[in-house]
Write a structure and sequence with these properties.
The structure is a homodimer. In chain A, helix 5 packs parallel to helix 6 (about 455-470), helix 7 packs parallel to helix 11 and helix 10 (about 560-565) crosses helix 11 (about 575-595). In chain A, a hairpin with a 5-residue loop joins strand 11 (about 185-190) and strand 12. The first copy, chain A, contains twelve helices and 41 strands. Chain A is globular, with a radius of gyration of 29 Å. The longest helix of chain A has 25 residues, at about 575-595. By secondary structure, the first copy, chain A, is of the alpha+beta class. Chains A and B meet through strand 18, helix 6, strand 25 and strand 26 of A and strand 18, helix 6, strand 25 and strand 26 of B.
Chain lengths: ~775, ~775
Amino acid sequence: MRTNHRFSWEISYFTPPEHPKAWYPATVPGAAQLDVGKALGLPDPYFADQAKEWAWLEDVTFVYRTGFRRDDLLAGQPEGTQVWWRCGGIDYRWSVALNGQVLEQGEGMFRPLSLRLEHLQDDNVLEVTVFPVPKVAGRPNDRSQASASTKPAVSYGWDWHPRLIPSGLWDDAWFEVRPQPVLELVNFEPGLSADLSVARFTVDVVWDRPLPGGIHQEGRVRARLREAKGEAIWDASQAAASDAGFGSGAGKGTNARFAGTLHNPQLWWPHDQGTPYLYQLELTLEVAGREVDRLVRTVGFRRIRLVTNEGAWNEPAIFPKTRSVTGVQFEVNGRGVFAKGTNWVNPEVFPGTLTAGRYEELLDLAVGANFNIVRVWGGGIVNKEAFHDLCDQKGLLVWQEFPLACNNYPDEPAYLATLAREADAIVRRLRLHPSTALWCGGNELFNSWSGMDDQSLALRQLGAICLALDPGTPFLPTSPVMGMGHGPYVFRDDAGQDVFEVMNKARCTAYTEFGVPSPSSVAVLQGIIPADELWPPLPTTAWTAHHGFDSWQPTTWLMPEVIADYFGPADNLALLIDAGQTLQAEGYRYVYEEARRQKPYCSMALNWCFNEPWPCAANNSLVMYPAQPKPALAAVRQACRPVLASARYAKFRWTEGELWEAELWLLNDSPFDIPAVTVSAWLDDGERTLLATWPCPALAPGVNAAGPTVRWPVRSGGPVFRLMLEVDGAADWGSEYQFRRRNLVKVQEGTARMNQTETREAL
Amino acid sequence: MRTNHRFSWEISYFTPPEHPKAWYPATVPGAAQLDVGKALGLPDPYFADQAKEWAWLEDVTFVYRTGFRRDDLLAGQPEGTQVWWRCGGIDYRWSVALNGQVLEQGEGMFRPLSLRLEHLQDDNVLEVTVFPVPKVAGRPNDRSQASASTKPAVSYGWDWHPRLIPSGLWDDAWFEVRPQPVLELVNFEPGLSADLSVARFTVDVVWDRPLPGGIHQEGRVRARLREAKGEAIWDASQAAASDAGFGSGAGKGTNARFAGTLHNPQLWWPHDQGTPYLYQLELTLEVAGREVDRLVRTVGFRRIRLVTNEGAWNEPAIFPKTRSVTGVQFEVNGRGVFAKGTNWVNPEVFPGTLTAGRYEELLDLAVGANFNIVRVWGGGIVNKEAFHDLCDQKGLLVWQEFPLACNNYPDEPAYLATLAREADAIVRRLRLHPSTALWCGGNELFNSWSGMDDQSLALRQLGAICLALDPGTPFLPTSPVMGMGHGPYVFRDDAGQDVFEVMNKARCTAYTEFGVPSPSSVAVLQGIIPADELWPPLPTTAWTAHHGFDSWQPTTWLMPEVIADYFGPADNLALLIDAGQTLQAEGYRYVYEEARRQKPYCSMALNWCFNEPWPCAANNSLVMYPAQPKPALAAVRQACRPVLASARYAKFRWTEGELWEAELWLLNDSPFDIPAVTVSAWLDDGERTLLATWPCPALAPGVNAAGPTVRWPVRSGGPVFRLMLEVDGAADWGSEYQFRRRNLVKVQEGTARMNQTETREAL
């Protein structure tokens, strides 16, 4: 059996032709910058604008080293025992050397390394050199510097991410002692019959060297599938003496393929559609009847398709006709599923510090918000294994992008070769996860600010790699594709339309990014902005470094002028935050519900964005760094309930004398039959008025119902009025909406317009 | 040196469990149906509706056989001489046997066969069995029967193609005697530098067996590039004794790769942009200093890209934003080229009868019409080599589709494997032609009547194959893609809009199908319709079998009611034809010119369709079967001149009292600077009126100019008036447009509306 060993690491940095001088303790996994920053006492990069003091670390070379004695690993081990150094990936350009001899060098953080260490000495040093972060020459200090590499572009600066670029040993690294051959699972393909009643699956396995043996003493490889409760339901083994096919690259070839059949498999479902059932796949390698290696991992049976959205084939209707829109309706195990979710960004500026615990904390918030999908946005990293294990377990679909975003990635051979290596490693790793629901080339690549198009060799290559390695999972070249929409990103746009008006006019197959910003809560702000700059927020202060100002448009995320227009001038920070967070909650709630009303033509709603990599002063996120929900998360949780009473209305603010109206809906994404219910609509502007009761008929699974439009003449009163929808016998399907009211006041004109009385609006 | 031999063929047919009985002479290349039909005296399938008497031939099995004596091939040949049977492809499911032993069997007509014949007897029989045409079970007798095969769907019946399905030995077949090894060219990649000044090309060559030799007697392979006038400008050779890499499949591996550099290569251009320059690539194989094989073929240096159309990045403008449209602007050798051309369909119902002569006759008409591109539509065949050689020579770009059209081709492994084999063969053959400008998955696959979408494994696979084998040529999954338009297909639509109105409102990046129908000329009609059915055309007659009626909509192609509305009731066939052909000419002329006015956002105009596979009674074709131009071809030739004066106007028919108007343009697709000219606009309704003179400024290459709008109050007069545009000093840039006039007449109402005079329209 293999054993794993980890020794402590040190780190140094230098700029050639200099050499490493001082060595500091290093944390692995982690980030070279954090180790050196800590050693040198650099200031907290998350406070005020201190991140800029870390900028010089982009351009130095780091060296990690770890020392070990041969006996630390091999004492007591039999002859022929092998030692390997393994690592989940090195960020970004790297070289690995043992005792001064380079073992391998490369580019790209997503390729796991398995290096056999031969010729060990009594005392050994393994060194990992990490070169300066990649930057395309001649570009400004922005994301375009990442446009010829697979380095996630977000670290080069985004409108909610600081310019702060990590590198180094960002994933686990260990020494593996192998007295005997060891196994690796190459692929598990859960081939389901059309009616899902039979799984004809395959299991592909490799091992790392020819097994000892002969006619009478063969090795055997064995594969077993166990139910969650541990019972083996399938068991197969085959002779493993042959080394035919071996040597086609670590983890690339197939030494043994098992083909199994399972009747009535329990299926993996997104959590809101069923149980995300996982089986245990157990692989063992036996030599002369003795088990020498064992691997266990979870696998699932599911079929995920993207199909054409209902109604989309009816378009276009007139000549000349272009094509119909790209189908983006998820169908999971034969059932159309409305995808409710969010855009997942790096939860840390330094992703090397990410732990399973942090992943779980965030993913639990996502599941708690009734999300069934996360889009892992192409500007960020491909996550560590723990993320995908958790999504498997929690029944969250994963839309996985490759690391391309908002750049024009070139048709150059060197870049294409790096991308191919990285993509190969990414697909081979994530295809084993039943939660992997969609491959996507990257973010907004077919829009002007990226400038790529359908002929991009990078995207064509990604399509070919996904087809070759994971043909059962859909692929899209980018988001948005034809018919899909990104935006809006504000509560009210420059034309004065609020997000309700924009969404009512929109007609997309999927809203895969839409944002409503808000300021962060006081505690977060106090942690990043000097006390004397907290109030009032000004563009000349630390508010700007944390994206309160001058991110995208001057006041996009903090939007003090919008808040003031709706709520009047805020005279303290708490009021500003409360107002901004109210807008965010009402705005997000509406978008999710409106997208659901547009079902089945619309099939997806993913807000921009879920989380954030550092504490932002203001952002579209639902969850503040590191994992603190904003009030909007609760509103979104309400909007994404499987079944709820919902209202469609024109806008957020109404003026006295206007005829307010709202359509009543019952939204149903549930896989169950829904009984007939009665919905009562109450208007509360201090006193409650019953506007209508609606006997909503029973509903088939996944089908919405549209009810009556209710009306109410807006009368003068307080700044807020509310609509309450109560569902008889299903209290938790009820909903509540908030509106702002503008009262009219009589204004007496001055001398120029004597005797003329005008009606003016006032807050 | 190899020698080729052809022996006569016989054919028989049977239905298992029967066996072949009678044998008839067979023509190879040809079609099994034609041989048997001739032998049995079946009636001419092109006359009236007699094609239906050929229908039973779909479901029989054919056997071709050819006999030869070993001495016919091998007498006098040295020991070790090999005999191969080669064939361009067998349509569609087939098996090849020598003396009763099956050598190979397969499916698909586009895969060339090279079969080594071993163990020859004194007397030998080679048999080719051709199985019944593929039909998906349970489908009606229409194109959907072809939806799980690579059989071109058009033969199953289309609205301009009879149901008449060919099969058999449709391309050349011969015996090849090889006393020595023979060569094959695998690939020639013309890698051009960014500025096109340097070609770094590669030449990949295989030979069919290890060469004899040793240290002192090696084989050599030699490659030479010659200019058109014969001078060698590059010459390289290398040892060829090694058989490393051999055996990776006939024509698939690479035994030798040459890398060459050529400075200032002469480029291959579409004929309207420059010279379609071709070099001779000469390959020889030498053993012990003696040449044993030689291959010569033409190659060209060009770079073809599809880039985003000018203006397309400005869209979409509002949130939510979807992607920008698919870029479809051809850029040839760095220059944006407006693609003017046509949809090429099978020129024969039985493509096996196609000759280089027929191809040339038709392609000369295309070049003569000022077309620079042909779209080889996916409903039909991939053409024989002669077609592509001619396109290379004549400077015609080829948009090449795979054989998928208007069906939902499945994600099934058997179909995908057949498609992959066929596509591999197609791409390997056509990538050697510089005229191959675009790969396309097939016709209208992303529209409702096909029902495929971006996740189709067939289309993803085609993209991957094209990327792997021919990455330098663009790929589109289908036509239309986003932003591209198909249609309209009539002069006047059901809403009463004529094609001028439709096109003026359209805004596409490319019009890749648009049709205006007309009846065929009298001589054609007399050849296909019984004399007593010629007049009047009725749906109950042979007019219908030849698509005059009930193709698509009841009267779509013949449109007698539209003709009658514009021209009055026709009282004889000649008048009907003349009127219909006038509408076609005026309609097509306008679409090409309007598409050119929409440049640069629009980059392409391809009418539906160029030719036809049999004599149609009425069709959108510009050329009647077999190669007779309709009058519209001359009008299109005028519309596609590199430079012309052009007019934009609202509609074809004007009523007395209306204010007629037209915008004046100078359209310029030429690669040259255009001098300033003066354009005079004359209105001729019996007398000539000068409406305006426009001093058009000098124009840069490829740039249009928009001039003044001229106006004229329509007065009563004859049924026709014309606009003449004359260009001072460039008479051949002048244009003339025809309009129909409706006069108003006073109608006295009857008793019910006494004393009331109404104005009515009359023809």
